[in-house]
Each structure stands twice: as structure tokens, then as C-alpha cells.
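Fig. S4 source data, part A: sequence.
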Amino acid sequence: MTLEELFAKIKTCAQQMNTRYGGTVFDEWTVVSLAENKARVFFYTGPRNDEFLQNFAADLGPLRRELHNQKYGVGDFEFSRHGAGTRIEAFVVLGGGLFLFCNNTQTTMDAIAKNPRWLDAQVPFVELAEAIRASTPDGQGHTQFFSAR
């Protein structure tokens, strides 16, 4: 899967989640490389394009610790129920040092999850994660397989 294909899948996922939820689940979606301890944005859609990287380290909040956890492979994801405001609420591992970050800058993950439609809205998110995992050579998410063309 190329990065361009990934970006298209992210946009589709966001639309499907919002439709199933009946409102915006995540208003911010971004693909970030953290290789060599330097954040580099490959894709961003959201309300704070200019400020995103300036606040990125602080906005990771409790998810920062999880980013370096070796238990996560490609396609694995994590949510933070306590993210508020610009605090990032979810990530998906895309490959070695490459992540998809999702956030709702207007509400908390806890508030989102209280809506009964949240369960159905998660389906496209999980499908995206599975498509990412399946794009790896062994289908198990053990090797980075993204290429920027």
C-alpha cells in the first residue's frame, strides 16, 4: 500500500465513521513519522494545520508512553479515554516509526464513547486497521510495507 492509497483509505474511514456516528468522531487525522526522534507530517486533515506540530509533543499525553511499547505491531491501535481538547485520542501503528493519529479537538473520547452509536462507528476504524495489517508482507503486521510514490 502506498501512502497515497493509505490517505484515501483514511478519508473513507473518517466519512464512514461520521455517518455511522451521526456526527464527527475525529476532526483531526494525521500520519506522522517519528523516526530518528523527529516528527514529520505526511498527511494532515483537521482544524489546526499550522499549530499541529507545535503542540504535538504535549498533545500526545498518555499515548506517548504507548508509542514505544514493543507489543504493538502494524495495524494495532490504542485509545486514550481521557484526551480532552487537542490531546490525541487514538493511534494506529503503520510501520516502523510511522503512525496514524486521530483526535477530536472539540470533545473527549469519553464523551464520544457514551453515544450508543460509537460501537457501530468503530467498525470502519477496525477495518482500516485490518487493511493496514494486511498490507504487510506476512499479513501479520510484522514488517513496514508502506512506500511513498
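Fig. S4 source data, part B ends here. The chain is about 35% helix and 20% strand.
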